[in-house]
Amino acid sequence: MKIIFDTNVILSAILTQGLSSRVLDLCIDEHELFISSWIIDEVSDKLQNKFQFSDNDHKSVLAFLQNVFMFATPTGKIPDICSDKDDNNILHLAEYVKSDLIITGDKDLLSLKSYKTIRIINPRQYMEGYSQN
Fold first, then answer.
1. Sheet order of strands, 32-35 included
2. Whole-structure pTM over 0.90, yes or no?
3. How many CB atoms lie within 10 A of CB 4?
4. Residue 10, φ and ψ in degrees, nearest 5
5. pLDDT in tens, 2-61
6. For position 17, what pLDDT does the model report?
7. By CB neighbour count within 10 A (0-12 exposed, 13-18 middle, 19+ buried), where does 13 fall?
8. 40-65 CB burial, b ≥16 within 10 A, e <16
9. pLDDT of 12
10. Is-contact 10 114, C-beta < 8 A?
């Protein structure tokens, strides 16, 4: 399965040892994970400016992302569906790589439930579905 992690879930996975971290660990082992420069830039900005990560910790996180995610550069028109225009970048990447799933904590994205053939769920929904398999 091809999966996109929204920035908020990536940050939660990095900052805590909670549900998002467990979901990311499971997905690394079982699925193809994709990331774009837009997501990397957003994660990087939040780590440096909001969470005050040291240069070494920041570099470690970026190296981790480069190791576990496949990088994609979406082309074509960015969708214009979400009220928060940044969220459209997540949909754009998902559509470009023909993702099966977006995992997010973003209420606006979650309210869509799906985009084209791509399901949009939160980490808990992933775990509930995963534990049934």
1. 70-71, 32-35, 2-5, 101-103, 118-121, 114-115
2. yes
3. 28
4. -60, -45
5. 999 999 999 999 999 899 999 999 999 999 999 999 999 999 999 999 999 999 999 999
6. 87
7. buried
8. bebbbebbeeeeebeeeebeebeeeb
9. 97
10. no
Ordered domains of the chain (ranges, CATH):
2-131 (3.40.50.1010)
Which pair of structure tokens corresponds to residue 44? 């990087």
The helix/strand/coil state of 118 is strand
Place of tokens 């939160």: 122
pLDDT at 131 over 80: no
pLDDT at residue number 130: 65
